[in-house]
Amino acid sequence: MTRSSLSRRSLLATGGAAVVALGAGAAAQPAVAAPTEPTPPTPTEALRRLLRGNQRFVTGHSRHPHQSLDDLHELAAGQHPFAVTIGCADSRVAPELLFDQGLGDLFDNRVAGNIVDDLLLGSVEFAVEEFGSPLVVVLGHERCGAITATIDTIRSGGTAPGHIGTIVDSLRPVVEPVLDLPGDPVENGVRANVKAQVRSLLDRSPILAEKVHEGALAVVGARYDLDNGRVTLLH
Fold it and tell me: Per residue in 108-157, pLDDT tens?
């Protein structure tokens, strides 16, 4: 599958209609928005850009780049995200903030437990195919509530209420094998889950695997520290 095999007209028709509906002001916008910054040419450069942004965040030197109304108007005609993130829905883990990026930089996918199901996988594949994003980051974080709920459910022998059980059922095969390892069980579960979701992306998606093989894409796992704001890569 190539980028050209996607129908830009069919997939983005609704967005195009919305721009037209804005009236004369929207008509003045360019047909294709320019990137807020040049897209990093390689996965390595994309990762460096993210980690430099996190360093600014950690040291209190965030720039909050291209977040103005002018930037919003420039991006109205199109987006050019240089990285795709798969993060937890936790309110303390906002990728644009912790990586010090702005509008149009990141294609965010957030769900409790950063679980890669079919819908999320399709979202990631779309971003990589349509925008040519060279980097995918699976971002877990310490003291993850989804991991904690899974551990509590396993140990109690009970069930999670409502649809929370769907999250627990998805994480159980990842968390259960590391429950008895030395160290903090939640931390062990977080790390195991990030690595499992990275494997899932590559094992289940020929699109992503092919681009990784070609050197056009990197899929990496990382952990966010709630106490100091630092992101570290997991190998």
Answer: 999 999 999 999 999 999 999 999 999 999 999 999 999 999 999 999 99
Instruction: Single out the residue of 123, 143, 149 nearest to residue 191, CA to CA.
Output: 143
Cα dihedral across residues 228, 98, 46, 38: positive or negative: negative
By the 8 A CB rule, do 136 and 47 touch?
Answer: no
Note the pLDDT tens digit of each residue in 158-185. 999 999 999 999 999 999 999 999 999 9
Its pTM stands at 0.82
For 194, the token pair is: 């990030």
Q: Coil, strand, or helix at residue 140?
A: strand
Name the DSSP class of 81: -
Burial 102-119 (b: 16+ CB within 10 A, else e): bbbbbbbbbbbbbbbeee
Contact 144, 90 (CB under 8 A): yes
Quickly count: other Cβ atoms within 10 Å of residue 129's Cβ. 18
Sign of the C-alpha dihedral computed for residues 115, 172, 152 and 189 taken in this order: negative
Q: For 110, list phi and psi in degrees, rounded to 5.
A: -130, 130
Q: What are the residues whose beta carbons fall under 8 Å from the beta carbon of 112, sequence distance 6 or more?
A: 88, 89, 90, 145, 146, 167
CA angle 42, 44, 47 (to 5 degrees): 115
H helices within the chain, ranges in order? 8-11, 13-21, 24-27, 43-58, 69-75, 95-98, 118-131, 145-156, 164-175, 185-204, 206-214
